[in-house]
Amino acid sequence: MLSVRASSSRTVTSLDGVWRFQLDPEDRGQAERWFATPLPAPRPMPVPASYNDITIAPEVHDHVGPAWYEREAVAPHNLGEDRLVLRFGSVTHEARVWVDGVEVAQHTGGYLPFEADITDHVTAGRDFRITVRVDNRLSWQSIPVGFLAEDAQGRTVQRYFHDFFNYAGIHRSVVLYTRPWIAVTDVTIVTDYATGPEGTAGRVTYTVEAEGAEHVHVVVKDAAGAEVAHAEGAAGTLTIDNVNLWQPGSGYLYTLEVHARGSADGGASEDVYPQRFGVRTVTVRDSQFLINGEPFYFRGYGRHEDNLVRGKGHDPALMVHDFELMEWQGANSFRTSHYPYAEEVMDYADERGFVVIDETAAVGLNTAIIGGFFGGDPIPLFSEDHVNAHTQAAHADHIRELIARDKNHPCVVLWSLANEPESNTEASLRYFEPLAAAAREADPTRPVGYVNVMMGQPAQERVVDLFDVVMLNRYYGWYVNNGDLPAAEAGLRAEIDAWIERAPGKPILFTEYGADTLSGMRDLLRRPWSEEFQVDLLAMYHRVFDAYPQIVGEQMWNFADFQTGTGTTRVGGNKKGMFTRSREPKQNAFVVRDRWLGKRRSHEC
Ligand code: GCB
């Protein structure tokens, strides 16, 4: 799906602000047609934001089931022949949308956008009411998976297998935009370059889909807006002489301005869509990860969209601040653990030259991790009653939707299809084979991987051959050998050696390693949970990484402390952050900064 862009033929109006909101704990709203008239007893609710932490009411914080949002908007008075589209950046996890009581959209999946053409349901210049039903329930067939249970008081509770709070609501911006009845509906850009005596020439292969268009032409503009190439037709290849490559740390962007024209009933129309892109290549070869032909070493973090009060709601102030912190630290990359991030974040990573591992929301496809945590017998993950063919189909659709949204971002260098799934069984191989194929079909240009869990040791792991890289989350020194760093180091080295044998030629990337660390807890004996222990644990991992040329990156867990469900190992959330949840640095932040800035000087690409 194309991003929202204003242009000479498109206008964009934000619908962010304070909406009206009502919980629907008994799931009555649908039957009582709450969409047909204004909500019976609403309270104010900001958009975008998770609703959970906005009020101080436990029933809002812990709500399981549907909730409703509502507001009025005005259709542009000068709509003319244009179409009006209502677009949501994300609604977590399931949405149904009505305009003046008429259903216009349904969407499943809490981290990707959807839109509806509402032209036929509004009148130019008139008010209309938007009603949204948001359902935060997860099931064995949703991505991510979860299940409902009853607590001791007979209340319905949501169980899930991932380590972050199940925030819900309208998490990203809502807009109304206009576009002509001839509309650019998709653009795909693939880039390459060749260096010769005359300099470096960029090669830009593009494909445009445009509804009702009789004629398409494209113009490439550089970052200053000057035309550098143009072509006729809905598909073709352009050359940019003396191209400025998109590089890690230097996010040079071009724009492919697409003009689609057509005429019907005597009227002519033109849609103009500006698609940004960068010229760069990504290749995996001989245990190396190459960006523009140069070995790239990932320095950074797994992150979360998470913050005080707003939960998972996108916030541009927080976004810019987080990038400032990452850059201060000498990081060059992050993983969108454990779901697709806001489109604004991807745009911003493009601009700042950050390298992104783009992950699906398939987190927690692993019932062994939690063992007997929920009580009862272990749950067989891949089975008719649990993760089944419907889950697999939803996962495949989600992969395709993610790639459709993010395929033109130069910052994205690798698709991560899942975080820590079961990977050591024949059933996991059957599950992942078609998913890896779906990703490669949707994007033949980027490497594909999945993030491996500690139990998926090289001797047992079954699926790595489907993928281009080995991505490892490891907690030697924390969940294993807690506090015993010599034993942790021995375990880590032995496992790396085994991976090099198991997956020869594949680069190895550490996508998680870390220790829960209570900010302000200092300890002369440097024991677990102290700031000193976090410093020592990371230093041990870094010493090991430096000994292996096959290791192409270190993304520690986590950029910042974040909210989780409650439990015996969580003290007000997960505390493995380099920064606290309110973004104060822990001692480790300064130590790692020295390392990463030093690495940047020694072999930046
Ligand atoms: C993991 C998960 C991550 C958790 C982390 C932890 O392996 O991928 O979501 O938050 O461990 O801290 O336990």
From TrEMBL:
<dbReference type="InterPro" id="IPR023230">
    <property type="entry name" value="Glyco_hydro_2_CS"/>
</dbReference>
<dbReference type="Pfam" id="PF02836">
    <property type="entry name" value="Glyco_hydro_2_C"/>
</dbReference>
<dbReference type="InterPro" id="IPR006103">
    <property type="entry name" value="Glyco_hydro_2_cat"/>
</dbReference>
<keyword id="KW-0326">Glycosidase</keyword>
<dbReference type="InterPro" id="IPR023232">
    <property type="entry name" value="Glyco_hydro_2_AS"/>
</dbReference>
<dbReference type="InterPro" id="IPR006102">
    <property type="entry name" value="Ig-like_GH2"/>
</dbReference>
<feature type="domain" description="Glycoside hydrolase family 2 immunoglobulin-like beta-sandwich">
    <location>
        <begin position="201"/>
        <end position="280"/>
    </location>
</feature>
<dbReference type="InterPro" id="IPR006101">
    <property type="entry name" value="Glyco_hydro_2"/>
</dbReference>
<comment type="similarity">
    <text>Belongs to the glycosyl hydrolase 2 family.</text>
</comment>
<protein>
    <recommendedName>
        <fullName>Beta-glucuronidase</fullName>
        <ecNumber>3.2.1.31</ecNumber>
    </recommendedName>
</protein>
<dbReference type="Pfam" id="PF00703">
    <property type="entry name" value="Glyco_hydro_2"/>
</dbReference>
<dbReference type="GO" id="GO:0005975">
    <property type="term" value="P:carbohydrate metabolic process"/>
</dbReference>
<feature type="domain" description="Glycoside hydrolase family 2 catalytic">
    <location>
        <begin position="282"/>
        <end position="596"/>
    </location>
</feature>
<dbReference type="InterPro" id="IPR013783">
    <property type="entry name" value="Ig-like_fold"/>
</dbReference>
<feature type="domain" description="Glycosyl hydrolases family 2 sugar binding">
    <location>
        <begin position="13"/>
        <end position="180"/>
    </location>
</feature>
<dbReference type="GO" id="GO:0019391">
    <property type="term" value="P:glucuronoside catabolic process"/>
</dbReference>
<dbReference type="GO" id="GO:0004566">
    <property type="term" value="F:beta-glucuronidase activity"/>
</dbReference>
<dbReference type="InterPro" id="IPR017853">
    <property type="entry name" value="GH"/>
</dbReference>
<keyword id="KW-0378">Hydrolase</keyword>
<dbReference type="GO" id="GO:0030246">
    <property type="term" value="F:carbohydrate binding"/>
</dbReference>
<dbReference type="Pfam" id="PF02837">
    <property type="entry name" value="Glyco_hydro_2_N"/>
</dbReference>
<dbReference type="InterPro" id="IPR006104">
    <property type="entry name" value="Glyco_hydro_2_N"/>
</dbReference>
<dbReference type="InterPro" id="IPR036156">
    <property type="entry name" value="Beta-gal/glucu_dom_sf"/>
</dbReference>
<dbReference type="InterPro" id="IPR008979">
    <property type="entry name" value="Galactose-bd-like_sf"/>
</dbReference>
